[in-house]
Write a structure and sequence with these properties.
Length: about 350
């Protein structure tokens, strides 16, 4: 449940003791339960427990029965709190696993510690982003062995809170291996270069041919969905793969590699054909509606529309690079307040998600 709650470091401060960590976590969970609508048909069968744990006194001390009720019946019920960034929630889970491993003295602690170090290393590369730069001292400390020698649960909690909102700025193609936890059962891999073969050149030719082919088939129903920012289905992806496979522009390995690098076949195709400009404007209308913007803010939003029209989606870190920083060196944060930044990033993530079949 904890991962679904929007947190504020300013509101809770940095816990310095185990009791401080417990108190702040209990308060977050209380807020989530209190935001559950007891008239919702999913929640209605659990109404008694939801009402019970919507009261602060229920969280003062949790006995075994309370823990069972919360984990088996309350956890996972829908709440009306605003959903949070998926990457932040994944980082929460990683940090929680690390805290539990520390308290239980589990052998997997060092493996989890190394994954946090990897994330910190990727964040350090994003020092052009003001929000990242503000936490640079912690980001660098977390990568050192000294910081981990006498690490405590409160220290890990502070680290979690300060970095959770930053992981969204890590490029998605770098992010997935850090957050996933697959074991290598095949042993190490050895690269072999064969004379006369150039994988990079071959793939570049495939991408160029794919772009030309897709532009010739913009009337295809699935490609039209991608252009108009309509959601894809699993069958749409199958049709898209078959279309590319029958085109003769490349083999299955080319298609698979392109899809893997783009984090999905739909994203790969949209990166080549972009979005319809009208659809891009419609997507941003959710963010723009009811607000008044300055000339610089409107120019920034128009740049986003331009980028979506050309490339189909935009990574958050891109908003801290040129041409966006040509308007203000601080990028997104130089023009918008935090609530507006959160709203805009949610809109852009929704645009990206439309190209990924549910």
């Amino acid at each position: 449940m904890l991962a679904a709650v929007r947190e504020s470091t300013v509101l809770y401060g940095d816990p310095k003791t185990y009791e401080g960590v417990r108190r702040s976590v209990a308060d977050l969970l209380l807020r989530e339960v209190a935001a559950m609508n007891v008239d919702n048909f999913v929640i209605r069968p659990h109404r008694r427990l939801v009402e019970k744990y919507s009261k602060p006194e229920a969280w003062v001390a949790l006995a075994g029965e309370a823990l069972a009720e919360l984990s088996h019946e309350v956890a996972g019920l829908p709440t009306q709190l605003d959903p949070e960034n998926e990457e932040a929630k994944r980082f929460d889970l990683l940090a929680l696993s690390l805290q539990l491993a520390l308290m239980r003295d589990e052998p997997g602690f060092m493996r989890l510690c190394n994954r946090i170090k990897e994330i910190a290393g990727l964040l350090e590369e994003k020092d052009a982003i003001p929000m990242v730069r503000e936490q640079m001292a912690l980001i660098q400390d977390v990568q050192s062995d000294e910081w981990w020698q006498d690490v405590t649960v409160p220290m890990l909690e502070v680290m979690r809170r300060r970095l959770r909102g930053l992981v969204q700025f890590i490029d998605k193609h770098q992010r997935k291996p850090v957050f996933t936890d697959f074991e290598d059962l095949m042993g190490s891999e050895t690269s072999i270069t064969l004379p006369g073969f150039s994988v990079g050149t071959d793939q570049a030719k495939f991408v160029a041919k794919a772009r030309a082919f897709l532009y010739q088939h913009l009337d295809n129903s699935v490609i039209a969905k991608l252009r108009m920012n309509n959601p894809l289905t699993a069958s749409d992806l199958v049709e898209l793969e078959q279309l590319l496979g029958k085109s003769g522009i490349g083999g299955p390995d080319n298609i698979r590699r392109a899809a893997d690098e783009a984090q999905g076949l739909g994203l790969f195709v949209r990166s080549l054909i972009g979005m319809d400009r009208g659809a891009a404007k419609d997507a941003l209308a959710v963010f723009i509606g009811g607000k008044t913007f300055t000339a610089n803010q409107l120019e920034f939003i128009n740049l986003i529309v331009d980028h979506l029209a050309e490339y189909g989606f935009i990574e958050p870190a891109r908003l801290y690079e040129s041409p966006f920083t040509d308007i203000t060196p601080r990028g997104l944060e130089g023009l918008f307040q935090l609530p507006d930044i959160d709203d805009l990033l949610r809109v852009l993530e929704a645009v990206r998600a439309m190209a990924v079949a549910a």
